[in-house]
Amino acid sequence: MIYDKHIFICTNQRAVQAPRKSCGEAHGMEIVDAFKKKLKELNLPIKLRAQKSACLDICDFGQTLVIYPEGVFYVGVELSDVEEIIHEHLINDRIVERLRLENVRANK
Question: Which CATH number is 5-106's, of 3.75.10.10, 3.40.30.10, 3.40.50.720, 3.90.320.10?
Answer without folding.
Answer: 3.40.30.10
